[in-house]
Amino acid sequence: MAGAGLFRVVAVALAALTLALPILGGPLAGTSLGVSPYLANIVGQIATFALLAIALDLVWGFAGVLSLGHGLFFALGGYLIAMHMLKAGYVHQGVVPDLMTFMGWTELPVHWTLFESFPYAALLILLLPGLVAFAYGWMSFRSRVSGVYFAIITQALTYVAMLLTFRNDTGFGGNNGMTGFVSLLGMRMGDPSTAVWLATASLAATLAAFLLCGRLVASPFGRVLVAVRDDEARLRFLGYDPVWPKLAAWTLSGVLAAIAGALYVPQVGIINPRSLSPELSIEIAVWVALGGRGTLSGAVIGATVINVLKFWLTGFAPDLWPFILSGLVLLVVVGLPNGLADLRAPRLARLGRARHDP
Amino acid sequence: MHFFSMLFLLAAFAASSAHADRASLAQGVCAASLGDRVAALGALAEAGALGDAEEARWALRIVEAVNDRTLRCAASGVFLGEGAAALDAITLLPAVAPADATAPPINNRQRAAAASAAAALALFTEADPALRARAVTALERRREALGLPIIDAALAVETDAAVAESLAALRARLLLSDDDPANRIRAIEAVAQDATLRNRTLIAEALATEADAAVRAAGEAAMARIDSRLAVGRALATLYSGLSYASVLLLAALGLAIIFGLMGVINLAQGEFIMIGAYAAWFVQNAIRAAAPQFIDWYLIVALPVSFLAAAAVGIVMEALVLRRLYDRPLMTLLATWAVSLLLINLVRVTIGTQNLEFHQPFYVTGGIPVLGDFIVTLNRLFAIAVAAAAFLGVVAVLRFTTFGMNVRAVAQNRAMAGAAGIDARRTDRLAIALGSGLAGLAGVALAPLYNVNPNMGAGFIVDSFMVVVLGGVGSLAGAVAASFGIGQINVAIEPLYGAVAAKVVVLLLVIAFIQRRPEGLFAPRGRR
Fold first, then answer.
1. B249-282 pLDDT tens trace
2. Residue B238, min C-alpha distance to chain A (Å)
3. Are B166 and B253 members of one domain?
4. Domain boundary at B176, B204, B219, which?
5. What domain range includes position A226?
6. B227 in a structural domain
7. Is A286 on the interface with B (CB under 8 A)?
């Protein structure tokens, strides 16, 4: 496997960053080597995007299931952590969330019960998106909905979820979403150290997911996934039931996306329905496509490259970004079928994998 | 005295010498009894209404003089104004009012009658429809000087539709408050002839103060009758607006289905092709307005081929530059067409702006034909339906009866075999993309008089049109029709009850539930999976 070396490089880089950031942003902050909280925040955000890309690459790159709706799981994780932070702030610090004010609630509804407890919220962040992913995946894979159909329906699902959360009466804060967080696990929002610790946690989570998925795709289970991608009908003919491996990968992917969302929201301080827009969900696929599907390192690199570019460009030319993004996508899908990996091994791409579309 | 006033009134009705009438009418407002003076104001209004415009202006003059107390009564005649500056009330020529001329006493009842008479006469003297409408509103409150002959005369000469409508309602109210119960029942029956919500309210209002049991029964029966017809009308109206939404969906989905059926490419930019069609229509409108303003009403017709070609051209460019390299990678075409849509939206946003475009509404898309109850066949929706129906028939004809159509069907069934039989599959693809994009362009024209046109308009249609394709099955025209009508109707039926979002949720859940059973769509041919 050509990507094995790159895999190690990315893993080492992630590990190094995870270890270095608390030092560079902590004791060394303010020195010439130090990392500002602003920069740490951006690194943290990009790490959650990389996690999101890993999640999508697991199902798209390896199992051949393209989701244009991973924003749904991302937002689910984000809304759950936001509910935890609002509830905890309300219970412990007595900060009344804006949400309650404009909804005219005198107290938080029943389903917010226990949300002040972090373990409970964390459990839900793992369980709820997992359950949603499982239910939807089970219905789709069982009836052999796949390919473009599957992708379109995931997008429609996310779109409908966006329409629902935009409404005030669904209790997600409508257009304004949820914001005004006070603290998370005792760390006050807005503190420089909080930014550094959140970024470190995001890097650590991304590294863990990276290693976990790396082990997974190299295992027999991963071989089955690739077989599903390459020829599902033949696999079925050989006696395998492709539903369960697909479902397992899909559910894990949903949970990883939710974790990314839960790490992302405290760092940006807001969650609103725009994270459910088809735009974000498709962008995730763009990161993966750019980095190269089917290699986890490609997913991390793609997400990093595009988002660094985005942070840098939206600073001085926000109107330019959509043009750059669409240009990049067209360039990648037309010119570099395996993403940036093609830049290193153009001949390989032309010979083999380029012909194949999972 | 009463006898004399009766004489005056009779004289007012007689169409003899105008000045003799005027004399008796003018004498009437000088009558000694209050009741006579009030009656005289009514007679003035009626004389003005039944006479010519000149007579109406004269009557209004007298009524106003009574109201602002410049009218003077004397034994030698009736005058407007005092002393040497006075006018003779009958001829309106200068005359000297005698010193003993007095203003007739006036009270609130008389003032009300004067205001009512003035409003009634304004219906005949005012040239501005807005002022006439205000006069009708005044008459609704003050009916003292109002009689059926006046309203009928006003209806006969009224040119403004809105004023005429409120006059008709006023007439109905007047009849419904007739003194004779038999007449009231007759009035109820007459009003109930036209089953509209407005007429139902009229009857309900009249019944609120009705004492007579027979009239009540008749009124309630009439209201029940109106209710059932209104319900049918509402159902028809819902069906109709669902039909118009479905026809726009059908246009967008037909293109998607053709492209998907042929190449397995889902065109995420189809919504933006709708937008391009609408913008092309806007350019056509502006060009016609600049070059030949007298033909501005026909721009929508001119826009049909122009928008079709504009969207088709963009589709061909997209095919040539992007899609042809991706035919064996359907999932990548999703990303590619999404990038195209992002590019198109932002190009339009940067070059033209994000505001909603202003469209001229030609006569053939404004107004509607009332059918039953409050159900009106609005012409803008009819236009969309007509465009969709014509385009659908055109597509069916092209696919059935032309060589190109045969090639499309052959390539869709078996690309390699079609190629072996000498069909240029790539050329067929390109033409099919042009056809599919062009159909979206037509959808843009069809909805230009119906919806907001801005760079983001495509997003609203894209999800629904995908649902149509998923539900209708790939490349199946009958399926696309059935699915678009189903989805259009569900949207419109649920929207008024639970809102647009609920409609989308229900459609999506139905589609997900549906493809559990039939992943190939409604009308897909049976085959191996």
1. 888 888 888 888 777 788 888 889 999 999 999 9
2. 23
3. no
4. B176
5. 4-355
6. no
7. yes
